[in-house]
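Long-time lurker. I teach an intro course on protein structure, and each term I like to show students one example going from raw sequence to a predicted 3D structure in token notation. This year I'd like something fresh instead of my usual example. Would anyone be willing to generate the tokens for the chain below so I can use it in lecture? Attribution to the forum is fine with me.
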Amino acid sequence: MNILLIPLCPDEGDTEQAPQTREAVFMGAALNNTGKPLSMYYVLSRCENSNDRIDARQRLLNEDQEGGAYPLLDTEIPMLVAYKRTYGRIPGP
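-- Reply from a regular --
Happy to contribute to a lecture. Here you go:
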């Protein structure tokens, strides 16, 4: 299985782009020729100690979208420092 993690900042600018991002993933997945299915998940990143992350999580999980609720991981990358340290790294076994 191929897994795609999509970092998403909890501000409105990023969350408003979630539908276009999902559509781009679906278009790319249609071209997938590895024979392995693709699973995509959004992960909230650059989260500060505010209600933005809570509001964003509720918006993504409860919005009535054509493709259903957004697949959102039940975890967050809490601060910019942690985001910078993990950006571009590939998780290993």
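Some talking points for your students: DSSP finds four helices and three strands in the chain. The first strand starts at residue 2 and ends at 8.
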